[in-house]
Amino acid sequence: MSSFVNEQNAKRGHYAGVIKDIAEKAVCPFCPDQLVNFHKNPIRKHGHWIVTNNMYPYKPVKQHILLIHEEHIEHANEISSSAWAELREVIEQETTDRNMIGGALTMRFGDTRFTGASVAHLHAHLVQSDPDASDYDPEQGLRVRIG
Ligand SMILES: [Zn+2]
Questions:
Q1: Per-residue pLDDT for 71 more than 80?
Q2: First vs last Cα of the chain: how many Å apart?
Q3: Is 142 inside any structural domain?
Q4: pLDDT for 15 beyond 80
Q5: Looking at residue 80, which CATH number applies to its domain?
Q6: What is the CA(116)–ligand 1 centre distance, in A?
Q7: How many domains does the chain have?
Q8: Ligand 1 centroid to 62 CA: how many Å?
Q9: Which of 1, 108, 133, 143 could bond to 60 as cystine, CB 3.0-4.6 Å?
């Protein structure tokens, strides 16, 4: 298994096949030179961060934005002060532009055995669930697996 992805954290459906394919290629799908091969949604850059809609959004979700640190790092302790400041700016901009009056921010970092991440490259999810969706279950809500 490639150290760039964790197949154990991507067991379901089409996404499992995508991660298996990436593992076999032994490349990091979030590094900028590879991202274009695996990610088809438009991206924009803000300082150290790549901002894009997740190709495989959690459900039920209104917004699912991926915030990917441009340079390949894996641990939160590697984020520079300027990158932290830019992350705050990105969150402010995205939540304002998308009129997100509520949501959740999940950053996965480090050893993927403890994070639930399928990709080791440091990234965060900015997510807004969709309580108005037809498949919304108030008992379940939108669940995120962490490790
Ligand atoms: Zn990477």
A1: yes
A2: 18
A3: no
A4: no
A5: 3.30.428.10
A6: 17
A7: 1
A8: 27
A9: 133
Q: Which domain holds residue 91?
A: 31-129
Q: How far is the CA of 107 from the centre of ligand 1 (A)?
A: 15
pLDDT tens digits, 107-124: 999 999 999 888 999 999
The per-residue pLDDT for range 84-108, each reduced to its tens digit, is 999 999 999 999 999 999 999 999 9
Using the mean position of ligand 1's atoms as its centre, give its distance from the Cα of residue 67 in Å: 13
What distance in Å separates the CA atoms of residue 65 and residue 133, rounded to the nearest whole number?
18
Structural domain includes residue 146: no
- pTM of the full predicted structure? 0.88
| Region at 116 (left for phi over 0; alpha for psi -120 to 50; beta for the rest) | left
Q: How far is the CA of 129 from the centre of ligand 1 (A)?
A: 27
Asked whether the beta carbons of 112 and 6 are under 8 A apart, the reply is yes
The residue behind tokens 């298996």 is 20
